[in-house]
Amino acid sequence: MLVVLGAPTLAGATKYRRPFAPALGVKYGVDHDGSKTNDSCKSFDCDGACYDGHKGSDFPLPFGTDVVAAADGVATTVVQGCPDYGGLGSTCGGGFGNYVKLTHADGRATYYGHMKNGSIVVAQGATVKCGQKLGQSASSGSSTGPHLHFEPREGGATSLDPFAGGCSQPTSLWVQQSGKLPGDQCETACACSAGQTQDQGCGSCGIQHRGCDAACQWGAWGACGGEGPCAPGATDSTSCACGGQRTRTCSPSCQWGAYGECAPCPEAGAAGAGGGTQSAGAGGATIAGSAGTPGKGGGGALGGAPPGAAGHAGVPRAGGRAGAAGTAPSNGGAAGRRSIMLETTEASEEGACSCATPRHGDAPWLGAAAALIVSIARRRRRA
Ligand SMILES: [Zn+2]
């Protein structure tokens, strides 16, 4: 009795692929009947497809069929020099004829027997990958016809039946076993533990998940969920009522922050003087060339007057407007800035960013704002 066959498969034991390409199942398997001399045998699935005392699995490969490694390993023994047809009882190569022994990561070895002389292409000591060609089939050693004798061993001498079955063990040593036919897929290393899950960030603050499947491989990432409306650090601008822009920034949690302040609106005094004189501001910024275009005056000043240009206009307030916008340093700006600051404060007490230019005449609050500005101007005149 080969007692080891009943032992549980070690965790992490190397699994094997079919060591050749043709879809051929085992013809004569390992004998499990407990006797080497009773002239009968019991294979892994309890039928008689085996030889009495046979320790390996015989696959009837045509002469010259490529034999490949069943798993990653090292070619620890390579024997050649035996005739391609040895005949029953031949002791060449210990009966295996020309053969390769691979030693695997789990300490077990696999033997590939009866190969063709001179066909073995791996050198002793070479590292071999699963599926890599070792040589070709023949009938060297103790053999009556071309076939491959495949035999895993544990601890050097104890043979293992790679097939699971009622008369062997419940766990197959093949990566895949379908009756007498092993699969031809190599074992893949476990990437994860079955049932394990993993998350990762995606998109704008989103999260996606994946799970580890039964074959210990990660599945695909799922859809991205829980995204915020924006990407951290992104900015977004909107037009201010009086021209210019105000900006908001996306927070690290992918939510928009509040919009910033608008630049102060155009000069209140100009509006008080009848709106049209707003163009004096534009006159200061002579490049605007929009003296007769109310409304654009402020824009021209904001856009940047040439240094000194505002000062030449002799309208300190207009110069100050340019200074306040921070876009056009000018000589006139310093004096003007003070009055602007004052006006801004007064205007903001009313909670309005008021624009007194006719271009916004359709806004209902303009009349009130203009009145307010006029009163401010009068107050200042009195002061
Ligand atoms: Zn055999």
Structural class label:
alpha+beta
Strand content: 15-25%
Radius of gyration: 45 Å
- What is the mean pLDDT? 76
The CATH architecture of the largest domain: Distorted Sandwich
CATH topology of the largest domain: Glucose Permease (Domain IIA)
CATH homology superfamily name of the largest domain: Glucose Permease (Domain IIA)
- Total helices: the number is 7
Instruction: Flag low-confidence runs.
Output: 1-11, 270-371
**Could you tell me the number of beta strands?**
15
Shape: elongated
Notes on the structure:
The protein is α+β, with helices and mostly antiparallel strands and 383 residues long. Helices cover 18% and strands 17% of the residues. The protein contains seven helices and 15 strands. Strands 1, 3, 4, 5, 6, 8 and 9 form a seven-stranded antiparallel beta sheet that branches. Strands 2-7 form a two-stranded antiparallel sheet. Strands 10-11 form a two-stranded antiparallel ribbon. Helix 3 packs across helix 5 (316-325) and helix 5 (316-325) crosses helix 6. The radius of gyration is 45 Å and the shape is elongated. Mean pLDDT is 76; it is low at 1-11 and 270-371. It binds zinc ion. The site of zinc ion has 4 residues, from loops.
What characteristics describe this protein?
disordered N terminus; alpha+beta; Glucose Permease (Domain IIA); 4 domains; 383 residues; 7-stranded antiparallel beta sheet
